[in-house]
Amino acid sequence: MSFRLREVPLLSRVGADRADQLRTDTEAAVAGWSAAALVRVDPRNQVLVADGRVVLHDAAGLGDTPPPDAVFLGRIGDGRHVWAIRSALQAPPDSDVTVLDLRATGNIFDDASAQLVSSAIALLNWHESARFSPVDGTPTKSARSGWARTNPLTGAEEFPRIDPAVICLVHDGADRVVLARQHNWPVRMFSLLAGFVEAGESFEACVVREVHEEVGLSVRDVSYLGSQPWPFPRSLMVGFHAVADPGEEFVFSDGEITEANWFTREEVRAALAAGAWDGGNADAKLLLPGSISIARTIIESWAEQA
User: Which family does it belong to (predicted)?
Assistant: First the structure.
């Protein structure tokens, strides 16, 4: 059985111009700063949201030029530059503005907001963990409008770190799918199998290894579906589906998965209708991931098949 994603995952959509050519054009960056918009991200990776969009502040309020810790995100539809900084947040009283977490509520975002916020979180998280050279420990400085850090002694550049991970829907080629629960998840919360790619390993090989390590199944016919950035703190989720034999026994050897089961398409459809696992549906027999995740998109795409 083959299928495609029903839609592009939210965090993979393009809603703004990344304008990467401006990252090294200092004069253009400074010239656009006075009219630029600013995304504020708090230490918990939350942002201010109103009417389904991230709240954009006036960057000029921070001064005449971008502060050293600001990161350039690109340009939005009206041509304005957009930057981001780490900042405490407080929603104005008696307003529709709220402080929200992308992981919990990102499904309400428009495409531009999702792209800006995911990029801002990924870059700001990376800067906080890359303040020293991995070679000699020298304090590094932000460069390329926040898209690199340089060693002032050697001139060596470091670029944002991305950790690739696979996420796979394992099915029987017909109407059953494997869903698993990690040991630290509440009862009834299930999702797809996932794991980080190892050095010298392809995505497809990682799928085979991770599925076998986590639940003991041998998979075949590994097929690519799509990808999604997951900036918590710096992952790229690469989605696949693969076929396994329901006659094989589950074996939980790596300690990460505590329970896995085969579920029918009808059971999955009922769970999708009940909402996401953060929706507070206490009566649902099966709770599935939130709509911001590629896991949800993959599951929905499989469930739609006849």
Answer: Belongs to the Nudix hydrolase family. NudC subfamily.
